[in-house]
Amino acid sequence: MNIAASIPDFNAPVVEHARKDFPLLDSEMTVGAALERIRREGVGERVIYFYVVDKEKRLVGVVPTRRLLTAPLETPLREIMVRRVAAVPATATILDACEFFVLYKFLAFPVVDEQRRVVGIIDANLFAEEILEAGESEDRSRSRGTGLVGPEFFEALGFHLEQIRGASPWRGFRFRFPWLLVTVTGGTLSAVLAHFFEATLARSLVLAFFLTMVLALNESVSMQSMSVTIHALRSVSVTRAWLITTFRREVTTALLLGVTCGVIVSMIVLVWRSNLRDAFVIGGSITLSLVTACALGVGVPSLLRRFKLDPKIAAGPVTLALADFIALIIYFTSAWLVLK
């Protein structure tokens, strides 16, 4: 069966499929007041989780139904709510939302705008009925009958997504090759840069010996930061506050990693070659390059997401090319300044 022909457009905005019939609870409420609001406003067609908002109506937590029903009536919601909530951005597509279900395996997600205000809710049953039209009818009947979905739903959803993504090799080539040209360009520029510092490398061959290590450490840190950022971007919007917080955390971590690795490698160079200047150049370059690599690992996927490009495909080549080029600039310039 042609799955793509029996499902909605996966590039359509997810807000078109979000439910609006849900009660929002205030964080200052008690359990008793929350239950009274729920009885007064109703629960809509399906309710799995109850979402909590602050005075500005921004999402601050989620209260699972079990906790709400079993907690004492005088208990404040802020004491029983879960503060870390995975939320689907209102700018996401249906395909993005499906990936949330496959990744987190929750039964529902709130849809939030840029200010993190809840504009709708999407749940697994909705997608089981509207998207998995190609699945077995017996499994869907069981899902409707129980009102819930089992683990097989998430497995089936992931399987169907892979089939939908499974375009022709030519289409995959056209989608991925332009980003690999960034790597080719970055490698060419790095080679040209190395050519300008031939004399510097000739003065100290140990710089050439450790060049591979410097680039390897640089790429490892940039990939780690990039992976953490891409994972976070699944559930948050790129805002100035989020970027500042993320940059501060990742750069601090990179600084600790850079200083530690730089000291270790400097000691290796010093013991092996008994040359303090070489040790200083190599260790210092590692420290600085790891900090810049970390900043690129956060900044590049965030910028790509901001411009509605896919960071999973584009971030790797762009981040690594920029990280390597900047690392070489730091490495060669430091050597030129210290060893001239």
> How many structural domains?
2
Order of helices and strands: EHEEHHEHEEHHHHHHHHHH
Mean pLDDT: 77
Shape: elongated
Low-confidence regions? 1-7, 129-149, 151-160
Helix content: 55-70%
The CATH class of the largest domain turns out to be Mainly Alpha
Number of helices: 14
**Mind summarizing the main beta sheet?**
3 strands, mixed
Strand order of the largest sheet: 1-2-3
Going by CATH, the architecture of the largest domain would be Orthogonal Bundle
**Span from first to last CA?**
69 Å
CATH superfamily placement of the largest domain:
SLC41 divalent cation transporters, integral membrane domain
What share of the residues does DSSP label as strand, in percent?
5-15%
Radius of gyration, in angstroms, nearest whole number: 26 Å
Number of strands: 6
Structural class: mainly alpha
Topology-level CATH name of the largest domain: Tetracycline Repressor, domain 2
Give the helix/strand layout.
Blueprint: E1 24-26, H1 31-41, E2 49-53, E3 59-64, H2 65-70, H3 77-80, E4 88-89, H4 94-104, E5 108-112, E6 118-123, H5 124-130, H6 137-146, H7 151-165, H8 169-196, H9 198-203, H10 205-209, H11 211-233, H12 240-273, H13 276-306, H14 311-339
Parallel strand pairs: 1-2, 4-5
Antiparallel strand pairs: 2-3, 5-6
How is this structure best described in words?
- The protein has two domains: 3-165, Roll (CBS-domain); 169-339, Orthogonal Bundle (Tetracycline Repressor, domain 2), CATH 1.10.357.20.
- Helix content is 65%, strand content 8%.
- The protein has helices at residues 31-41, 65-70, 77-80, 94-104, 124-130, 137-146, 151-165, 169-196, 198-203, 205-209, 211-233, 240-273, 276-306, 311-339, and strands at 24-26, 49-53, 59-64, 88-89, 108-112, 118-123.
- Strand 1, helix 1 (31-41) and strand 2 (49-53) form a beta-alpha-beta unit.
- Helix 4 (94-104) crosses helix 7 (151-165), helix 12 (240-273) runs antiparallel to helix 13 (276-306) and helix 13 (276-306) runs antiparallel to helix 14.
- It starts with 23 loop residues before the first strand and ends with a helix.
- 33% of the residues are buried.
- Mean pLDDT is 77; it is low at 1-7, 129-149 and 151-160.
